[in-house]
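sanity check this chain:
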Amino acid sequence: MVSRKIKNLLVIGGANGIGKEAVSFFKKKNYKILVLDIEDEKIMKNINYLKFDISKIQEHKKILQTVSKKIKKIDCVINFARAGQRKDIKAENLENWNKTMNVNLTGSFFFIRELISENINKKLKFNIINISSIASKFTTRESPSYHISKAG
């Protein structure tokens, strides 16, 4: 994926974990990066950052308007968004289940759908990479909502 045709990245969930490591990698390769993340604004040198909760579907259009002011053309979207607490299957509850599904499946789907819709109207093409997990291939007693959401 390290193509020189791709210059502008929109990274969802890039403030921590694998997303943060990917941002660091692409930054070293001189990509222009805009990170969207639920975390309070992180100090990320030379990287644009917007606080954004992907599970709030009613805010997708608004954040995309802000994104389009910061990045004129998105070449690639990489979605690392994930949510949910690690809980044993007996401790899993509806609140954690819903939060996990609302970020990992519902919010991610509707955000990408909105992004595609806006870019079709502008006749712009871009790549989409949704990061899953090895957890989509198996389940354990821990984090059933996460495993199921990543298989979804």
About this structure: The chain is about 40% helix and 15% strand. The CA atoms of residues 3 and 35 lie 20 Å apart.
